[in-house]
Specification:
By secondary structure, the chain is mainly beta. The chain has one helix spanning about 1-25; strands spanning about 40-45, 50, 60, 70, 75, 80, 90-95, 100-105, 115-120, 125-130, 135, 140, 150, 155, 160, 165, 170, 180, 185, 190-195, 200-205, 210, 215-220, 230-235, 240, 245. The N and C termini lie far apart (about 40 Å).
Length: about 260
């Protein structure tokens, strides 16, 4: 009996050390980058904000009303920023290659977008979504690479405004070491998260709301080294969770924030 317990404890310890080592190795990949380069083309077409990057390390912020600003050396249409003439209903971002940084910050306004699509292409990319509200579909594809998708609320004159996704929310992170961290977010419909091959993490269930838990799926991707290698923190039993190791901790365990 003691021998069986010893073997079991050994296997648990090996799993724990593997995930801890993975998180430690990923902290550098998930650190916010300040560098930027290249030129991003921005236009509008019948209420759709179209953002197209190049193969450099683009660094942009999309703000209330569709204002797009380049940071840290990234230019917008050869200049510093783009301001739409008309009301923006949809956002379509395609960044191609490079290690890109994208922040979509709803700010203190009340804009509700219909559809938001973000495709960062290959590279080690970071996407920050703050206070975004989407009525229909949200579709995010970070491609291959070590990627971070971070979702949180935003401070307004009336208090914090949560990110709110009324329609279907889809994330495909491709292969690589990826982290999906979300706080103060409301998901009102189907959620389909596929983190692909590699050591990945997902966390933020404690302070977020899933109104249709039976339609929520988190897939950590193919196993690695005999076990999943992926870490998920405090996911509810009502969700469909596959290819993850479950840990009762907080996001800092996976290299994210300590809340």
């Amino acid at each position: 009996m003691n021998r069986k317990l010893s073997k079991l404890n050994c296997r648990v310890a090996i799993r724990l050390l593997a995930v801890l080592a993975s998180a430690a190795a990923l902290n550098l990949a998930w650190a916010t980058r300040a560098q930027g380069a290249g030129n991003v083309e921005v236009s509008e077409d019948d209420g759709v904000l179209i953002i197209t990057g190049d193969n450099s390390d683009n660094n942009i912020i999309v703000q209330e009303g569709g204002l797009v600003t380049g940071r840290a050396g990234t230019t917008i249409n050869g200049n510093g920023r783009f301001e739409p003439f008309d009301v923006i209903h949809d956002i379509n971002i395609k960044m191609k290659g490079g290690d890109d940084f994208i922040r979509v910050d709803a700010g203190p306004g009340t804009t509700v977008f219909r559809d938001v699509k973000i495709d960062t292409g290959m590279g080690d990319d970071i996407i920050e979504i703050l206070g975004l509200r989407v009525r229909d579909e949200t579709r995010i594809d970070t491609g291959d690479g070590d990627d971070l998708l971070f979702i949180d609320s935003v401070l307004t004159p009336f208090g914090f405004s949560r990110s709110d996704f009324t329609g279907k929310f889809t994330l495909d992170s491709g292969s690589g070491k990826d982290l999906f961290e979300f706080h103060n977010a409301t998901f009102r419909d189907e959620v389909d998260v596929r983190l692909g091959f590699g050591i990945d993490g997902a966390c933020g269930f404690e302070d977020s709301e899933f109104q249709r838990p039976h339609m929520v799926r988190f897939d950590g991707g193919p196993p690695s080294g005999g076990f999943s290698g992926d870490g998920i923190v405090n996911a509810g039993l009502e969700f469909t969770i596959t290819d993850f190791e479950d840990f009762p901790d907080d996001c800092s365990f996976l290299g994210g924030r300590d809340i």
